[in-house]
User: Fold this.
Amino acid sequence: MNQQKNNAVVGQSGGPTSAINATLAGVIRGAAKAHGEGKIGTLYGMRHGIEGLLSEEMVDLLDIFREESDLDTLALTPAAALGSCRKKLKPFREDETVYRRLFEIFEKYDIHFFFYIGGNDSMDTVAKLSAYAATVRYPLTVVGVPKTIDNDLAGTDHTPGFGSAAKYIAATMREILSDTAVYTVRAVTIVEIMGRDAGWLTAAAALPGLSGGRAPDLLYFPERPFDKNAFLSSVNAAFEKHPNVVVAISEGARYADGTYVGASAQSGATDAFGHQYLAGAGKVLEHIVREEIGCKVRSVELNLPQRCAAHLASRTDIEESLRIGAAAVSAAVRGESGVIMSFERLSDEPYRTDIRAERVDGVANAVRTLPDAFINAAGNGVTDACLRYLAPLIRGEVEPKYEDGMPVHFVLP
Amino acid sequence: MNQQKNNAVVGQSGGPTSAINATLAGVIRGAAKAHGEGKIGTLYGMRHGIEGLLSEEMVDLLDIFREESDLDTLALTPAAALGSCRKKLKPFREDETVYRRLFEIFEKYDIHFFFYIGGNDSMDTVAKLSAYAATVRYPLTVVGVPKTIDNDLAGTDHTPGFGSAAKYIAATMREILSDTAVYTVRAVTIVEIMGRDAGWLTAAAALPGLSGGRAPDLLYFPERPFDKNAFLSSVNAAFEKHPNVVVAISEGARYADGTYVGASAQSGATDAFGHQYLAGAGKVLEHIVREEIGCKVRSVELNLPQRCAAHLASRTDIEESLRIGAAAVSAAVRGESGVIMSFERLSDEPYRTDIRAERVDGVANAVRTLPDAFINAAGNGVTDACLRYLAPLIRGEVEPKYEDGMPVHFVLP
Assistant:
């Protein structure tokens, strides 16, 4: 292992996105610059978040990424190149064991900068490690960089990773709209979109309506109660306009009593042993239409490609993710700790953002949902204000390298 | 309507693909050339296949597509720009009504060339119209151009549309493989792929293994009986190698007794009223893994994007589709009738094909499945010969126009 002093470590945590590796590439570029200026020794990458760190599974990222072209490939590789974990730290006043072990490792490797790229749980880790470092008086600068396709983090205009997922959804929705338009027979197509607690991604399904294009007829979000009869009336009303009705629904849509529309969401998809056939919100709506209207109906769950279709990433999102990663290192070397990096939007058109460091305590564990001003009065569509907010985030295309007709991904040696 | 003589008509039929509009663009380019040479009056487009033709819903395509750039956009627009139908003609010896009506329309519009872009049912229509024209001695040149993502048509090396669907599957599978690799917890990811009768598309899921990349661990095709115990043994064997097992299964996979693995496939997805929750082959495998192995498991149905994700179309497929469309017009003006256009492969590397006109009678209604030489001995993977066959078909990327961050589609006025 490297014998340098004043080192940094970076990890990725939580669910993968198409942009989390772009943020990592930004951190690596920032660290390489800081290394050149003598401010950081080297940058370790922890494998599988703090789980790997606890067993000292680390790689020397400045050594691995000596070629700029590898960083370019990394930035367009989906999922977490370092691996990920879903570990949430207990408060250290309850159990100090893990904290003691982590700080032993920091001491052993002379680590004084800790960068963590992740969602809500990861920002919670940032807050706790920062507080513990102060308690034990170990000089550790802790900086979180948000990522989540769900866009439901407080304290930032939007999250890295959301724009690419939104672009995938918008483009795929346009393709599905073209596909469903070919027949004259009445049919309903239901598209289930990720987002357990917030409707941001489902709102992105409305983007094909920009510039006068066709958009889905109906959208259903977790922010508004789902009503079966209102849904059926809306579908029948849409049939007055055209024979091919297209509906988008969040996986997290709920009835007025708070139960999920999707049976699988209700019982928890991964721990629901013994359930014969689990069904998501899309399948449930498919069933409702078949039973109550009796027309041709199909449901499509966009599923994993929403978070890993990096070939269709938003250039805006990837460039911002690179920038926010580098900005995290700048913030750290100028002494900011216990912060998460965030975007402040200065204007929609032309789209301009600033990157800031926010105190992490105020934002961790808070869920940001679609504001009322972004949802229409009927609760089944978005407003122009919502489209103005979303539009710049999906702009621009990336140009991944292709080999054998498939995008090339960076695989850590 | 146009008053020209010696006109042609073209239609699209059957399920949409990402390349069927490229074939249409090829027919339009070919017809414009033939028009310039005085060999064809104009080219009508029938809306929604012969269904629209029967009610004289036609557009003048040479008039609409005067700009080359519109043809370029059309070629990268998924689904059928003219609309589609699923009408199968009865034999004219049983019922001549529809034939009489069609030939009245041909006479009225002075149509002597009939181009039909479609799958098996459409080639059946080509055969029947050609035979009927001979019977009633109406001079009609009938040429079929195949399209199907399923690649299950006889008499051609491959079908237009297959390469783009295969590329979407291969690229998406690579993205899913990256996504699933981030955690250390044992997990099975099951990907359900289209193909009711043949495993060509599922075989394409193996393409990420080219050039040493990771490929799915197990593939299941309709061509080999699915055995639950063998499947479970294979998954457990794959866990010996890595914690993230990835499986691809055709929607048409069947047990040894011929029943479909997917319950929805078994009962027919659209007419199965009253079934609480229909499940495809992927969901059934998810259930088997959860019950019998008990690890984390997820299923992903690739669904409609397989046939409409035109932004990721194969350049090879789009260029061939343009060529075969134009070749159909050339064949027609040199007097070939009752034929379908087909590809003959001259070599894999470098990849070279010829376009030929085949007698339609021999190929309509025949299903071409994966040959034995393309499936491994265990029946759960493909051979190198299969990869050599598939590899050239997904090569090359297209460059669709984007507006507002989404691909631009051509919409018929």
Notes: The longest helix of chain B spans residues 162-180. The mean pLDDT of chain B is 93. Chain B touches chain A through 72 residues (CB under 8 Å). The radius of gyration of chain B is 22 Å.
